[in-house]
Amino acid sequence: MSQFSQSIGEDGSINKRHLFGTLCAAFVVYSAAVYTSGTDATHLPPMSDEARLGQTIYQDKNCMACHQFYGLGGYMGPDLTNVISNRGEAYAGAFIASGTARMPDFGLTQDEVAALVAFLGFVDQTGTYPPRNYEVAWTGIVAQEDDPR
Ligand code: HEC
Residue 136 and residue 143: Cα distance in Å, rounded? Predict the structure, then answer.
């Protein structure tokens, strides 16, 4: 006999204590599964030291004040999620090295520019924005055809 059917008595009455206990147990089991399943993106190569340095510079210079990843950030400049695959490293590097009339020149060294380009390259591998060719499975999980997963 299942847990649930035990909650219904012979006369059809519902044993509230039993039902409550079953729901609590389900909650605990489900929470434990969610909290222990981890969030590692196993399909991604680990971030290189250069990309890590680039991430630090990205944060130091507050690039996200004007730029977005996956649509989140400031809106003065374009989204940078896939700038490397859409425009290329040389193009991105040129903007970062010299700025434009609308983007400041941060006076970065060549190594710092290369690190930022490496970081943008890493972000590029994490997915596609805006999402294209996606399907929502019955489980509610969204799978995207051109995602690296
Ligand atoms: C004050 C706002 C601002 C900040 C801060 C800023 N940018 Fe920009 N960025 C822009 C704007 C605006 C553009 C579009 C420039 C244009 O078309 O003239 C741009 C363009 C770019 C591009 C080219 C994107 C494309 O698709 O054409 C890259 C790459 C870039 N920025 C990287 C960075 C990085 C890395 C930082 C931090 C070091 C940074 N930006 C900080 C405003 C900013």
Answer: 6
Q: Is 52 in the pocket of ligand 1 (CB under 6 A)?
A: no
Index of the ligand 1 atom closest to the CA of residue 86? 26
Residue 70 identity (one-letter amino acid): Y
Nearest to 114 by CA among 136, 97, 132: 97
Mutate to test the pocket of ligand 1, among 56, 63, 67, 82 (most ligand atoms within 8 A of CB): 67
pLDDT tens column, 102-130 = 999 999 999 999 999 999 999 999 888 98
For 49-125, the fitting CATH number among 3.50.50.60, 1.10.760.10, 3.40.50.720, 3.90.850.10 is 1.10.760.10
Nearest CA to ligand 1 atom 41: 63
**Using one digit for the tens of pLDDT, what is the confidence trace for 5-15?**
566 767 777 78
